Amino acid sequence: MDQYQNPEKSRPSGGLFPRIPGQNPWLDLVRALAILLVLLRHGVHLFPARPADDADMPFTWIFATNGWAGVDLFLVLSGFLITGGLIRLADKGGQIRPGTYLRNRALRIIPAYYAVLFLTAFGAFPFYAPDAEGMGWRIVYHLLFLQDYLPADINVAFWSLGVEEKFYLLAPFLVLLLLRLKNPAWQVLLLAGLMAISPLARTMHFLSLDPAPDYTQFFREMRSPFHACLEPLLTGVAIAFLRQRMNVRISPSAARQVFLGCLLMLAVWLSSHDFMARISLIDVTLQPFLLSVLFGTMVFAASCLDTASPPPGEVASRALARLSYTLYLVHVPLIPLALVMSAGQAGPDPARFWAFYLCLSVLGAVLIHIAVERPFLSMKQRLERGAAFRPGLPAKAAPLRKGM
After folding, report:
1. Structure-derived torsion over alpha carbons of residues 24, 19, 36, 231, reported in degrees to the nearest 10
2. What tens digit of pLDDT does each residue of 367-381 get?
3. Which of 308, 335, 350, 378 is the most buried (most CB within 10 A)?
């Protein structure tokens, strides 16, 4: 999750989550929304006092149940930010060096992920105990980021990291290919062809099943695999090309209206019904595409607000955005502890559960950020500065600054 900013203007000041000159606070808001949706989803999904009948659910519960869509928003952001960084590097005359790029990705992603993976696997989170059977093999394939195709059964939230890592590996080659296709029509055709892979694969698999899959089977076979998640990633790629190669933008006032319109549409849509209560052909084909379009429009509007005044609650959204990765990593194994701490005679109290769950998640995220994530991000920035001013290399050939 790279920060969308001008690398030459990035000079963070003091504080845990300082404002970085040149960074777009509206994209921070988008990232904060994505992690909040994921936190809501897992909170209601794993809370034992879930309403027995979907018809009895209040709209707020339905909205939170559909919070899995936050992962799609993260994927659109990743496609946009990674592609945008690679395009900026190419436009400034720098080479896209796969080795340097992958080193930066590794320093951004792997240390915090491995730390939480081992803490989780070896029972460091109170009351959260993954099944010990076959743990050695499961750790191995999680280390290799294969948990999108194999069961993400150490921490279910880890599945999307397998998707993201495969995109990171392929992104430089895709961007280089798109840059060599000078004709925008060929670029559109290539992206459209790649984007069609996911709905076609999901549809063919769905039609081969009888009866229709339940959510567990759908998630395992048509939601978590990398090849089933291409629409949001490629939507982000397309938005980056629109913004940075074709210089397509709208005025800040129009962008603000589009952004707010997307938020309203998202709130109404996610509150309408439990999308995954019954898996239909629409859920398999059209729904992921429509979510990608909605989130892509939101990201596009936010990117056009880079010169606008910050959104309300900018400090809070900035903090959530900086913590979003570590929050994503630690929140699931902290849910059992929050349930125990909120327990009463009649079971867990919802208000206390949410208070403990959110506070514990933020505390755990801050600890991982300070102890693991931040030192490696500092190392990454030192390496980038060294590459930027190394004799014989143009100063502008430095790779992207910080991000996921």
Report:
1. 30
2. 999 999 999 999 988
3. 335
